[in-house]
């Protein structure tokens, strides 16, 4: 479909368009015209991804001054979905416009997901892959290799090993480019094998020329990664954060550091190793240390000590602040041996703090004052630790960065605590509350303000969009993230038949109230009633049912009781039962078997956890999910000191009440869980909220509009038997033949309908080409 949207020719690769897609495009276009930011909620299963891609790529085609689209996803499978949709869209555009509409689009991920070097790709963790890659590609390793080859007396096999793919890519220089097209990670690996080029560095290089780049949130939000990958992006870029309902938590994690006793012990070993290396360099090549000292005297940026675009960048700055680059490194840490002595003193101070047997909480200012008083360490010196360790590791030509992760983490901690006075808290917990007799100290520097990590993104780019299916209440996100949107909308789902059936069960058939409140969750009556809900729904709902619990421990407790009381046996007479565990491999296997049980007609129940892997990234479309049960309200662990510190900060800074934020956070997780059940308008499913608290407007009002608009009075305050009667009637209604033609003009728009809407707004037919 090609249509005119307020003067913009939009290329949409499908024959029909939903009314909410049309409204979503309108909001996007107006924000792009205004060069402002947006916050948009669109129901799950209504084609949010293709709508966003169609509008923004069409806008790029008509407005060449518009920069590239930076599409941020949470996971690699989501990235692959986006690129698959984009490939479909691009084929449609080329069919109607020709080669003039060609674009360059690619996905970028970690070396672990992109490396094609057989030895490096076989490494286990992401960190070890990165370290092995640097061992083969660092500039000084390549220099040593060339020097060894130039030395006729030395055997060639004694030269340091290099990566042939990186070397071939470097030899091509500016000619190492990708032809126009849409490239998934698999496409980039295949292209790299065919050409003999490194796909990771090729993709990093091609970001400059691409029209669309799809990568993880961290590439923009985590300053450690953003400084290396995204710093060259122009202001005109359009940034989209998809599935951004948890973006505030991602921002906070990006600027938080946890130190354990093992970290400090590892840092002490790293300091000893660095001391030996410094002594070795002093004895054999003191010039390197003298040159580094001279550069540090003159400041960092002017002398190019920290070229963050270089491929051999070792670790990355955890701080956004640019003032570090403009200042000279303090004199007391310029010499390598002085810096090592400084780090040794700082690590000993942290060890001494960890020996304390009581819980401590303080602000960065109080921490720095105590540090100055106890260890005579100045806070200003701390904020240069990152840059100084980076420079030192380069000077010592360290490539095994994986071995030095502990001291790098200490420097991250030091730089953050030395830079930020507000919006952070330091919390020392000497033991895990579950095991108070086992010492396990952890020193946590936790960020309390999500806007710190995302502020540079809003400041740098003209248009940034936060979008998801569950952003309600939508006015809270601009507060938490510190931005002013020019468009903010929560779109409803237009339906010709009620294919969504949300309901709230507040009591069992015996009229006992059900809830996972702390004082009720262990009640045998509540547990039995929860089991009865599952048994009765299994008897009337075909195929797959997914049940979500508030935590792993609660799920284990319930399943154990159900096993003892025979509930599981009754469920298994009708459907097979599978469980999510904290082991990713086990969960993936269970999910695969669950789908097989649904495919063969046996039916299955999948028991999983809110905030877990299943709740965030897995779709239960069609027969894989005909009902979702949400047992309880998935609050965070409210006794967590980190959470309490954040709640206090939100209350004092943004005047957000603690209860309001906790309810908002819990209900968005519940909405995310139940939203797994519907993935298109042809789909249908039950959304069952099993907790008396959902009956209150405080909780219910925070659900997305597209759910609450279908939550009618007769579906509230139900007992189990009433809910089962509604479920039976709903399944009977959904079993009737589905008349797609009846949707036309209401919940489905064809070319004529869209053209009529454009004409009514005063716009003519689209201009193609």
Q: How far is it from the N-terminal to the C-terminal residue, by CA?
A: 14 Å
- Overall pLDDT confidence: 88
For the report, how would you describe the main beta sheet?
A: 8 strands, parallel
Strand order in the sheet with the most strands:
6-5-7-4-8-13-3-14
Structural class: alpha/beta
Quantity of strands, as a count: 21
Describe this structure in words.
The protein is an alpha/beta fold and 769 residues long. The strands form four sheets. An eight-stranded parallel sheet has the order 6-5-7-4-8-13-3-14, with helices on both faces. Strands 17-18-16-19-20-15-21 form a seven-stranded parallel sheet, sandwiched between helices. Strands 9-12-11-10 form a four-stranded antiparallel sheet, sandwiched between helices. The protein is globular, with a radius of gyration of 29 Å. It has 35 helices and 21 strands.
